[in-house]
Design the sequence.
């Protein structure tokens, strides 16, 4: 097997890449630590609700929340032994998560790495869904969804996505709704499994004191060779204008909360371009709204905005810039942001602040390599087709001009939507 | 990894953890005080005011600009409790010089800045600046009010308040809004001076600081301080519960938040029982092999999460999010599972999983600077000298009978439920 090594000498880190004979991409990031972290990921998340295999005539549409439901049900096994207990016997702590564009199965352990990896590769390649075990999960996932509905930040975010998007998958809830998951059955789960859990649509990433040979030996033992399947996904892209400019909800919270979203319709087949845009926008965000920005200090000192947050998020189905916080005067906070951005478009970013942002972002890039958590960071980057190891160089290279061009391209009041959570007082309902 | 601890001044100890595992060097300065109603708010506030400006960097903007130019040197503070100790932590997270983009040296300068923040706050007429004090008071009051936003944490916090109304552990770590309001900048400055001179101080340097740098920083910060006697911050263990306290509170919610508070009957770190208590917690309610997960969630599908946690106070809290109509079903199942442990109905697999889970988490401590810090801070607060390896050995020897013995001592003290009106 050909093992490719990629090194970042500046920070003393490297990874190994192998294309396994089964079709699976394998990445190993050596770390001299006691624990090891492995993630087995499929390029399949909440946004993949409409798809077909190459050659099929029609697209299949499935109920919302199915990728997440499937993740829960992968823990069932035909012999009745649940997956958690298999891992527990070897001292690993196992888990899984689903997001917009990925489902990841993972474990962390300090001993018996090979045994635990065998279990991981085994259970994810052996689905066992029955009407009974699928039914049993309804109550559990319903409470997972209900629990999230009690988080004002979550409701605010979901409301915002619904204001920004009309039909794009970017508006979906990862877990679906209590109503949508009621439509899920074993047959549909199998259908999705067959399409998306093909090894050519998956990868394995490991960080720890582990050699590529060790990982390969387990892969050889556990993985069948699979025929590559070509998946066509139907994403409903849309323009930049939001559906609604303003949405609100009420909650028992201390202060009004607001979240402004700016819709970006960026789409590119080129992962590197996407990675560059994402990093550039993170540097822009740090320059404009980081702790040491005049804006942030100003609203902190005046008390206009508490818990200020700003971020740029780019996914396969859509990208958004978000700006939010808590304020007694939401209108004023939004106005201040809007005027500030108009001003920045005219004057450009402060060069010195941009250089500070570069250093800060570089430091957090280096920090991402401190623990085995790098396996997760690396995997989430891979899902978008990007190589996390390149991040440091991109941070070093991005110019002020590029950043300014992005600011001028993106920020326009026309594409803003605002989601507000108003407090309700007791007895007022 | 080499760990050593030495007392530099009265009640001020430096723990040095030498390791090249991490890309950052970290300093943690823990000020340890008793959790007291009359001082909780001041303790929580003083460090926030320190972060508003120093004589050399007057104001938030100059200070933050300086920090970010040092590769976002993260110097900040947080407040917490450990048992009935109130712990105010000032930390610095500094990129190692060898990783800077152009080889700039930042460690020395950032360390200076940390000393400056702690010893040379911006002043006005011999006390903190009025504007900063008033502004941080408002923010602290906002933070206290905002605890209602996180419903799970709020429910847990309310249950603890009700359960420990007459104990220090029931005192809110940020103080009460009315206490914050009363604080003057002069009183706060006096409290700051008191804390420097009286609080127990655990100073941690984790990473590879050059030469004697860590000790020099301690000397710079505390060299000019006349130290008095450290006040008693030990934790009082209440071993039994009286009549069960019950409370139901309402908010507009989609899900009910159930909290059950138990007295474990033992202190968390008592020599004869601490390892059995750890195993008990895992068998009963911590992890996917625990009885709570396997039964309340997997068997009865009542919830997404249901778990137990044991605190340094010797108290165990069980939390779960449920459909309000299932209140009795969930509560009864939790108590029934506790009874199973009391009866010794523990399978070999449950024991084995619990021990392996603990072993795995002990072996992982050394992989994170934060985990190393909290481990040894905990040791120092409770006068222990345990290593994670000691716990592994102790846990290995625990028997089912010992776990059942712990469960027999565990007593329900408080039932708390936060839910919508219709329940």
Sequence:
């Amino acid at each position: 097997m050909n093992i490719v090594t990629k090194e970042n000498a500046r920070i003393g880190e490297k990874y190994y890449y192998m294309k396994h004979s089964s079709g699976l991409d394998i990445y190993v990031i050596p770390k001299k630590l006691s624990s090891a972290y492995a993630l087995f990921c499929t390029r399949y998340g909440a946004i993949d609700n409409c798809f077909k295999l190459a050659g099929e005539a029609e697209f299949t549409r499935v109920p919302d929340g199915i990728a997440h439901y499937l993740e829960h049900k992968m823990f069932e096994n035909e012999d009745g032994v649940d997956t958690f207990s298999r891992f527990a016997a070897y001292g690993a702590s196992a888990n899984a998560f689903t997001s917009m564009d990925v489902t990841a199965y993972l474990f962390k352990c300090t001993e018996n790495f090979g045994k635990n990896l065998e279990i991981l590769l085994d259970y994810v390649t052996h689905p066992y869904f029955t009407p009974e075990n699928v039914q049993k999960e309804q109550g559990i996932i319903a409470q997972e969804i209900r629990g999230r509905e009690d988080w004002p930040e979550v409701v605010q975010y979901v409301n915002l996505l619904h204001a920004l998007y009309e039909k794009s998958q970017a508006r979906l809830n990862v877990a679906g709704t209590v109503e949508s998951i009621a439509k899920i059955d074993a047959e549909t789960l199998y259908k999705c499994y067959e399409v998306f859990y093909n090894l050519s649509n998956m990868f394995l990433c490991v960080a720890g004191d582990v050699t590529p040979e060790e990982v390969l030996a387990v892969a050889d033992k556990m993985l069948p060779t699979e025929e590559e399947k070509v998946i066509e996904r139907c994403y409903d892209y849309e323009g930049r204008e939001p559906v609604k400019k303003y949405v609100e909800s009420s909650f028992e919270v201390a202060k009004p909360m607001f979240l402004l979203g700016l819709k970006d319709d960026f789409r590119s087949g080129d992962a590197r371009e996407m990675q560059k845009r994402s990093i550039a926008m993170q540097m822009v965000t740090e320059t404009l709204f980081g702790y040491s920005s005049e804006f942030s200090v100003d609203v902190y000192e005046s008390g206009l905005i508490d818990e200020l947050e700003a971020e740029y998020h780019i996914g396969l189905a859509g990208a958004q810039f978000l700006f939010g916080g808590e304020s007694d005067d939401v209108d004023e906070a939004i106005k201040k942001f809007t005027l500030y951005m108009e001003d920045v478009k005219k004057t450009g970013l402060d060069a010195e602040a941009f250089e500070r942002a570069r250093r800060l972002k570089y430091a957090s890039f280096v920090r991402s390599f401190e623990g085995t958590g790098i396996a997760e960071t690396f995997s989430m980057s891979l899902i978008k087709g990007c190589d996390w190891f390149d991040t440091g160089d991109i941070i070093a290279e991005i110019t002020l001009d590029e950043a300014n061009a992005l600011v001028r391209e993106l920020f326009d009041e026309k594409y803003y939507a605002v989601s507000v959570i108003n407090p309700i007082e007791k007895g007022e309902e | 990894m080499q760990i050593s601890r030495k007392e530099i001044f009265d009640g001020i100890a430096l723990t040095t953890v030498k390791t090249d595992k991490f890309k950052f060097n970290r300093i943690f300065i823990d000020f340890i005080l008793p959790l007291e109603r009359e001082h909780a708010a001041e303790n929580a506030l003083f460090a926030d005011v320190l972060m508003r400006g120093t004589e050399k960097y007057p104001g938030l903007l100059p200070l933050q600009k300086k920090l970010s130019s040092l590769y976002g040197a993260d110097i900040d503070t947080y407040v917490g409790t450990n048992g009935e100790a109130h712990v105010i932590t000032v930390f610095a997270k500094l990129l190692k010089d060898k990783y800077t983009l152009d080889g700039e040296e930042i460690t020395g300068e950032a360390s200076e800045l940390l000393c400056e923040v702690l010893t040379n706050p911006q002043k006005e007429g011999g006390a903190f600046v009025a504007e900063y004090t008033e502004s941080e008071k408002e923010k602290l009051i906002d933070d206290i009010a905002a605890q209602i936003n996180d419903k799970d944490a709020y429910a847990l916090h309310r249950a603890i308040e009700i359960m420990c109304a007459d104990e220090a552990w029931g005192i809110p770590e940020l103080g009460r809004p009315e206490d914050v309001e009363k604080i003057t900048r002069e009183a706060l400055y006096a409290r700051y001076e008191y804390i420097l001179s009286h609080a127990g101080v655990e100073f941690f340097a984790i990473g590879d600081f050059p030469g004697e740098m860590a000790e020099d920083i301690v000397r710079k910060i505390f060299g000019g301080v006349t130290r008095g006697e450290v006040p008693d911050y030990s934790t009082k263990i209440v071993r039994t519960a009286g009549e069960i306290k019950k409370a139901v509170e309402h908010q507009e919610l989609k899900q009910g938040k159930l909290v059950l508070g138990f007295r474990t009957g033992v202190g968390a770190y008592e020599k004869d029982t601490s390892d059995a208590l750890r195993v008990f917690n895992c068998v009963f309610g911590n992890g996917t092999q625990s009885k709570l997960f396997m039964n309340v969630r997997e068997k009865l599908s009542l919830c997404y999460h249901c778990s137990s946690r044991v605190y340094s106070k010797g108290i165990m809290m069980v939390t779960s999010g449920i459909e309000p109509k299932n209140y009795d079903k969930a509560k009864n199942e939790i108590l029934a599972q506790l009874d199973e442990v009391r009866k010794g109905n523990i399978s070999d697999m449950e024991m084995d999983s619990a021990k392996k889970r603990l072993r795995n988490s002990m072996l992982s401590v050394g992989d994170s600077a934060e985990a190393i810090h909290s481990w040894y801070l905990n040791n120092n607060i409770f006068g222990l000298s345990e290593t994670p390896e000691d716990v592994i050995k102790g846990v290995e020897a625990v028997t089912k009978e010992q776990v059942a013995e712990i469960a027999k001592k565990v007593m329900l003290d408080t039932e708390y439920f936060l839910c919508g009106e219709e329940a």
